[in-house]
Amino acid sequence: MPLIRPTRRAFLATTTAFLAAPAISRAADRPVFTHGVQSGDVDTTSGMIWTRTDRPARIEMEVATTESFANARRLAPMDAIPGSDLSVKRLVDGLPSDQDIFYRFTAMDLSDINATSEPLVGRFRTAPASRRDIRFAWSGDTAGQGWGIDDEGMLTYATMAGHEPDFFIHSGDTVYADGPMEDSVEKDGSVIWQNTTLIDAKRKVAESLQEFRDQWKYNMMDTHVQALNASVPTFMQWDDHEVTNNWSDSKDLVGDDRYTEKSVHVLQARATRAFHEMTPLRITPSEPNRVYRKINYGPMLDVFFLDLRSYRGPNAAPQGDTLDDSTRVIGAEQMAWLKRELANSTATWKVIAADQPIGLIVWDNFREQAGSEGMADGTSAGPKGRELEVAELLRFIKTANISNTVWFTADVHYTAAHYYDPNRAQFSDFEPFWEFVSGPLHAGTFGPNALDGTFGPEVKFVKAPTEEQGVNLPPSAGLQFFGLVDIDGATQEMTVRLMDRADTELYRVTLEPKGLSL
Question: Which residue of 37, 86, 202, 511 has the fewest CB atoms within a 10 Å radius of its CB?
Fold first, then answer.
């Protein structure tokens, strides 16, 4: 009997209608799923799933290869309890490769086990074990700079969903825990933005564990976000705003009157717990709070997720010629892992998903005196400080003969394509490579940033606000960006497109793979 494969668009429409159903949202006598479903970190045989309830509940779970749930596999139930803010997530394994997987949650009130919720369904597709066309999207920066959920909602999520990607990489700044919102935003005496959906936790910076959790729940109140989550797996990484702006281990909050909690270590601990509770991120037993990881998406693609926050030294560290813990941004252990996994990868394409770009100059708090927030030191000379780590990695990739590495990132709130050429560089011991930047998803638009010439970047394309437009443009200005990547199953070529929220294709380039063995 052939498998039922409804299009993701049809599933998305059905799911959106279900999420908006008022009869369910008003149910008071039985459990309710409060923020939809999520899936993530999907590979050939497994994937993570997530949901949350409105009360302590036992969550029954089923998975099937058909939307009808014929011959469904029932999983062991899990309990949603206050200790995890009523959220649950789990790894579903033993799945067939390259297959649509439907998963269904049903909640039973722990105080009245006969009070049962309406079921809630999500969907993802496992990675292929052989070559087939692959499409993924990436972007970053959600609900920043005071731009929250208005009447139209976070439309870029809906635009991405319309392309039916196999998965979506959220490249960081997944929430803005340090970005309070107001009911409206004014400019020149006129209201230019109305946050029609707002909760109290978004009116101040996040400090308590509950306030950090609420940052996530706010974003998932948006119907476009919920609809994408229900049909497209999201591969999460973080940057700074999940904790506080430009944080490192040495962040000093003494002069920031918005915070009563002045310890960045306390804030980081609470933000870390909320991040892992509220996202479908795989758990690494050896380091349960780890964000960096590799996802194998079939024989043509490995995705390496970096964490450029947790292991960095101070932003104001001297930009000298010595690489030590104070000047690292990747960190020695993560670097060793990345080298090992890159060397062992047999995938055609090695995608490096970074939460910051390599060559764009980003000063801490926009002041050179405060130090480098990014990896570039702003001198366009030989590598110093954090650039020493980048040079080490690029030299290793060349020496180990690792081909077809491509970098994808966000962070700077505009979109660009950069080509790094050793013939243009101050440090030239590396093979040429591409870096693609996209975002914001739903936040203020800025840029463009200046480029540091250490590694020879060339701007092939950029789309950012003009000088006349200014900075911190609202989502309604249209400068919200995401990227689409297609890998052709026959030729193994990678086509990268930079898109805006109106679904306009801004730039396209096709990359030919080297050294094919498949």
Answer: 511
DSSP string, 331-373: -HHHHHHHHHHHHH---SEEEEE-SS-SSB--BGGG-GGG-BS
Amino acid at residue number 345: S
Three-state secondary structure call for residue 469: coil
Q: Rounded to an integer, what distance in angstroms lies between the CA atom of residue 415 and that of residue 439? A: 6
Instruction: Determine the 3-state secondary structure of 230 from DSSP.
Output: helix
Beta strands in 69-171 (DSSP E): 73-80, 87-92, 100-109, 112-116, 120-125, 134-139, 167-170
Q: Side by side, which strands form the sheet with 33-40?
A: 33-40, 47-53, 87-92
Integer CA distances (angstroms), 454 to 324, 382, 422, 458, in order: 20, 6, 9, 11
> Which is nearest to 29 in space by CA: 120, 119, 115?
115
Whether pTM exceeds 0.85: yes
Q: Mind listing the pLDDT tens digit for each residue in 460-471? A: 999 999 999 999
d(CA 162, CA 290): 31
Distance CA 421, CA 424 (A): 6
| 224 Cβ neighbours under 8 A, 6+ residues apart | 153, 154, 155, 156, 157, 158, 161
Higher pLDDT, 14 or 492: 492
Distance CA 32, CA 109 (A): 9
Pairing between β-strand 47-53 and β-strand 33-40 as defined by DSSP bridges? antiparallel
Interval 112-158: pLDDT, tens = 999 999 999 999 999 999 999 999 999 999 999 999 999 999 999 99
The one-character DSSP state at 188 is: T
Among 18-22, 93-97, 282-286, 312-316, the least confident range: 18-22
How do strand 167-170 and strand 134-139 relate by DSSP bridges?
parallel
**What does the buried/exposed string (b/e) look like for 244-253 if buried means 16 or more CB atoms within 10 Å of the residue's CB?**
bbbbbeebeb
Q: Map tokens 């793979």 to a residue.
A: 513
What token pair was written down for 465?
Answer: 């606000």
Question: Shortest CA distance to 448 belongs to which of 414, 411, 481?
Answer: 414
pLDDT score recorded for residue 23: 37
Maximum distance among all Cα pairs of the chain, rounded to whole angstroms: 70
